[in-house]
Specification:
Blueprint lengths: L1 E2 H8 L5 H8 L4 H4 E4 L2 E4 L1 H10 L11 E6 L7 H14 L4 E5 L5 H7 L9 H6 L4 H4 L1 E4 L2 E4 L8 H4 L5 H9 L7 E5 L6 H8 L3 E6 L3 H17 L4 E6 L5 H17 L3 E2 L8 H7 L14 H24 L1
Parallel strand pairs: 4-8, 4-9, 5-7, 5-8, 9-10, 10-11
Antiparallel strand pairs: 1-3, 2-3, 6-7
Bound molecules: adenosine-5'-triphosphate and magnesium ion.
Adenosine-5'-triphosphate (ATP) binds next to helix 5 and helix 14.
């Protein structure tokens, strides 16, 4: 669920007026939006039309795009960001498939609940124990997950490092149809993670205001350079608690920007304890978080930024 006010904030518009005016001009406007309390909730079909015609974010063509989430440092917010972006993209009508490659299975639990135990994971698909479609679990409208089990720890024993990228591309992503694939990774530079990054159209890397997460980013960027990665790389600042904090992380990251070619998301994620509260819920409550929490607007901005870049990539390719 996304509201007109969240969209306005995420797009940096002064008022809801242009959004509501656009809605008024649509022939079937009553099907595309409804009032819930004081909020104007927008349906996915609304976004498709609005984003295509918006001057600020003319998101036209996003299909079969792969985004991997990376940092060599643990606990920076890779999985939380993946979950939030997945909810926003699917809420805007983009069919989104998330893949939890991390044996810890946090993304699986953030989306499906603390106590969820998956039947199949990527490992089972690689071993031929199930098809990729059998491993897929529906989370909500437009949102699906290939969950993780501890067996993912043993993928490198099941498939050789050389074969991994091709297997991922043809046997996993190639067998599915989605607008957006989001692949969450654990904080290592394992063969599995490098294979995931190598097939990505975009690597979304999450950075906090501390030297170890910037170092973690440097490790990823150096490795990708060695591998000749050609997709785009975007950094998101997470757990930011004010201007000073933002200035510090920007300063920390500047030498890396000068050395490697990557962009910074124009919006950042503020510290929001609502994220932790939701993750501790048994029912996969990241999907039903308080709509007015900070992370809702922040993650919507980041999602728009990511979709916008992917849309531009598609235009260049055409
Ligand atoms: N913006 C935020 N505000 C407050 N807490 C956050 C925020 N982002 C993430 N967290 C918290 O930080 C912790 C780590 O988050 P998360 O699991 O997303 O990190 P990660 O990078 O995926 O970790 P790992 O490397 O272990 O996979 C969690 O407890 C989460 O609730
Ligand atoms: Mg994680």
């Amino acid at each position: 669920m996304i509201t007109a006010t969240q969209l306005r904030n995420a797009m940096g518009l002064q008022t809801n007026e242009s959004i509501l005016k656009f809605l008024d001009n649509l022939p079937n406007s009553e099907d595309l939006s409804y009032k819930r309390g004081r909020s104007q909730v927008l349906e996915p079909e609304f976004f498709q039309q609005y984003l295509k015609s918006s001057r600020k974010n003319p998101i036209k063509n996003v299909h079969n795009k792969i985004v991997s989430i990376a940092n060599n440092k643990g606990g920076v917010g890779k999985t939380s960001t993946t979950a939030l972006v997945a909810y926003k993209a699917s809420g805007m009508g983009y069919k989104t498939i998330v893949i939890d490659s991390d044996p810890q299975g946090n993304l699986t639990n953030y989306l499906l609940g603390e106590e969820y135990e998956a039947e199949y994971s990527l490992y089972d698909v690689f071993k031929g124990y199930c098809t990729v479609k059998e491993a897929l679990v529906k989370v909500s409208n437009n949102l699906y997950i290939i969950p993780s089990t501890l067996d993912n720890e043993f993928i490198s024993e099941a498939v050789s490092a050389v074969a991994l990228p091709k297997m991922l591309k043809s046997n996993i992503v190639g067998e599915l149809d989605a607008d957006l694939f989001l692949i969450d990774t654990n904080p290592s530079l394992s063969d599995m993670n490098l294979a995931i990054h190598s097939i990505a159209d975009m690597i979304l890397t999450i950075v906090n205001n501390d030297s170890s997460s910037v170092k973690g980013l440097k490790h990823v960027l150096s490795k990708l350079e060695q591998l000749g990665y050609e997709g785009s790389i975007k950094a998101v600042f997470n757990k930011i608690d004010g201007r000073e904090n933002l200035a510090q992380v920007t300063e920390r990251i500047t030498p890396l920007i000068e050395k490697f070619n990557f962009s910074i998301c124009s919006k950042y994620m503020r510290i929001d304890n609502e994220i932790k509260n939701a993750q501790m819920n048994i029912n996969g409550a990241m999907g039903v978080m308080d709509m007015s929490s900070k992370c809702q607007t922040d993650s919507l901005s980041i999602t728009l930024d990511v979709l916008n870049d992917l849309s531009r990539q598609s235009e260049v390719l055409q």
